[in-house]
Amino acid sequence: MSKAIAIAALFKAAQEIPHLLAPGETVDEWNDRVHMIVEQNYEAAGPYADGKGWSRFEIALATTDLMGNETRFDRRIHAGEKHPDWDQDKGLAKCLGQHHVSRAIPRAQWERLPGLDVDATLRCAIATTMQLVSQAKQCGVFLGRHASKDAVAQAFAAYATGGHCKPGERDWSRALEWEKLMGKFGPKYKADVPGYRRAKPGEIPEPVKKQAEEFIAWVGQEPTAVKIGDTVNLSFDNVPFRWKLRFERHAEGKVGVSVFVEDSKKEQESGRVLWGTTPD
């Protein structure tokens, strides 16, 4: 997905998140402002989309969904003005990400988060993305997989509470919205291997892990030696079930290896990238 297409998709998603027009703000003005917001969210997601976890679009959409639900993209909150109805934690929360002063965001940085210009909007996007990704990693739901409703719900819960990963009703509602928007506007991922499901990180035996890592190293040295979609059958005397490795184009266009395990129930799980990827 190109940058232009991704930003256009993020803007369409933002339009479907419940939002408000500030007094005197026209629809065209709202469109221009929110388009700038999602563009900065996409920029802020870039450094975290290194092929080892959530994709850039998944991160940017999560940030956008979070901002929309926290503030309805309200221009007054965006600008750092006092809102007549929402006290923003009695003035302690700033910008569309509703940040407090913290170790990660010291007061001098916190003071510069609000503002309607591009630079301030980017600063807010960077802070929000940083906090969201950090909490997702703390919850163990960022690395080695694409984002999912469950993973995003845990990240939202930790973002709101400062580290508690158990989602509440509000977090599930927001994550369900993210999932619907992702399905409607996000990139489409490749189908699972028939008869197999993508393995969860904790269930992969050491021999399979070692084999996957060896293939990763090989692809790094010979990136043209494999075709996207090729699979490799694995069989070990001391490992239960049958396993497959599949070469896929993962987050940000990189080639990686996904691990699949035999699924006698033919149940298909949402995609997870389980191992580090190498540049295409």
Present the secondary structure layout.
Blueprint: H1 3-16, H2 27-45, H3 56-71, H4 75-79, H5 88-91, H6 107-111, H7 118-138, H8 149-161, H9 169-185, E1 196-198, H10 206-221, E2 231-234, E3 243-249, E4 255-262
Helix pairs in contact: 1-2, 1-3, 1-9, 2-3, 2-7, 3-7, 3-9, 7-8, 8-9
Short description:
By secondary structure, the protein is α+β, with helices and mostly antiparallel strands.
Task: Give the key terms.
disordered C terminus; 280 residues; alpha+beta; elongated; 10 helices; four-stranded antiparallel sheet
How would you portray this structure in words?
By secondary structure, this protein is of the alpha+beta class. It has 2 domains: 3-185; 196-262, no CATH class. The protein contains 10 helices and 4 strands; from the N terminus they run αααααααααβαβββ. It has helices at 3-16, 27-45, 56-71, 75-79, 88-91, 107-111, 118-138, 149-161, 169-185, 206-221, and strands spanning 196-198, 231-234, 243-249, 255-262. The model is unreliable at 265-280 (pLDDT under 50).
Order of helices and strands: HHHHHHHHHEHEEE
Tell me the overall shape: elongated
The portion of residues assigned to helices is: 40-55%
> Whole-Å distance between the termini?
15 Å
